[in-house]
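Hello again, I could really use a second opinion on something today. For a while now I've been wondering how a particular protein folds. Please have a think about how the structure follows from the sequence. Here's the protein in full, and shout if anything looks odd to you:

***
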Amino acid sequence: MRSFKESGTKILCWSDIDGRLNPLGLALPALLLIVWHLVTVDGNIPGYLLPRPMEIGKVALDFALGNWQLTPYSGTMLDHSLASISRVFSGFGFAAAAGLPLGFLTGRITAVKRTIDPTIHLFRTIPGIGWLPVAMVWFGVGERTTLFLIALAAFFPIYVNSAQGAASVPPQLIWAGRMLGANKISLFTTIIIPASAPAVVAGLRLGMGLSWAYLVLGELTGVAQGLGAVMMDARMLGHVDMIIVAMVCIAIWGRVTDLVLTTMFKLYQPRAGGAVS
């Protein structure tokens, strides 16, 4: 009997996930920074529209350290970042807790797919901004609306990718598991979930990215702390520099959480997924 490798079947496992940093990825940001400096250095573009990179750097350091009191947000970066990170992980956690099991069930059980999949895809077509008015009616302005928007946005890519990954598991693996005496639960835990890993992690990464995007939308509705709240407050006070600094902070924290997510899955490689050959 030929092994799966000999028969040409590619086995996807957790080790296929790549979340490494590549120095080449810094080339484009560096180029953009150079262009930014060149177009603002002569003063033709007013500072209230696009401050120079050096000015942004000073404001960013002051936002983090509070040495110069350049803005009302001096020295508050940690507090605002922690508030935003907490909301992102809370909303993302709710989304993953619902999206992963529903996705796996939809991908493997036809009756579940026919029952819930059409409705979920119907709701998925509603743009996130469309949920904001009703969320403010249901939950009020502030924390709960933000968490609702984050969880809703992250749920759909997690669900869709989990369902696709579970549905795409090679039939040979299922047959082999059944021949070895695996029941329905062990088929999920030792074969379906590990083999679905690349699609699942792709969905989780998309969900994490959308969590940061919808964090800003939620925090614009009136929370006291958070990077999105800083952006709204800075806009009203005319601090374009702080808006840009807050955007950069969100980008950095978004990338950090993405790397944390992929690193966690790289470290956790179920033996069942790697043992199949």
